[in-house]
Amino acid sequence: MEKYPIATIRHTLAHVMAYAVKQMFPETKFGIGPVIEDGFYIHSATKILPK
Fold first, then answer.
1. Which of 48, 50, 41, 49 is nearest to 18 (CA)?
2. Confidence band, pLDDT 50/70/90 cuts, at residue 2
3. How many whole angstroms separate alpha carbon 44 and alpha carbon 51?
4. pTM for the whole structure
5. What's the half-sphere exposure (Cβ side, CA atoms, 13 Å) at 28?
6. Domain 6-45 is classified in which CATH homologous superfamily?
7. Is 29 helix (H, G, I), strand (E, B) or coil?
């Protein structure tokens, strides 16, 4: 028996990934990021190239 449903694990991992991206690129803005059948995705926008 699973301790946590897979959707809960995927949701948590989406937050962990967003945190890591935010640490590397503090100006990153995040949009929606739902859990999907095969994992999760997050819409984001950031400037990573110098002006």
1. 41
2. confident
3. 19
4. 0.76
5. 16
6. Threonyl-trna Synthetase; Chain A, domain 2 (3.30.980.10)
7. strand
Q: Is 39 left (phi over 0), alpha (psi -120 to 50) or beta?
A: left
Query: What is the reported pLDDT for 51?
Result: 67
What are the sequence ranges of the domains in the chain? Answer: 6-45
Largest CA distance in the chain: 52
Radius of gyration of the chain measured on its C-alpha atoms: 13
Q: Is the pLDDT of residue 28 over 90?
A: yes
Condensed to tens digits (0 to 9), the pLDDT of residues 9-22 reads 999 999 999 999 99
Identity of residue 5: P
